[in-house]
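tool=predict chain=A
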Amino acid sequence: MIHELLCRCEAQKEEKAWIDTFEAGLELFRARKFSGAVEMLKRTHELRGGSDGPAAFYLRRIAALAGKEEKGDWDGVVELTEK
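tool=predict ok
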């Protein structure tokens, strides 16, 4: 099992906004609410200046899972096929 590490740094207010947005995206992803997750993960990209590796990873996973969540074909496991 691999966990996404998140770090809170209250002294860095500019970081708090994107961290909170990314966390919201992950929660929506876990809940299989992919359209909401996409919105939050894209917002994370914007808040990070157009680039965020973890958000990009989850956006690719969501694209690969398109339609599977409605049919119940996804068991919630994310296979890591890239670094």
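The chain has four helices and no strands. The first helix runs from residue 13 to 30.
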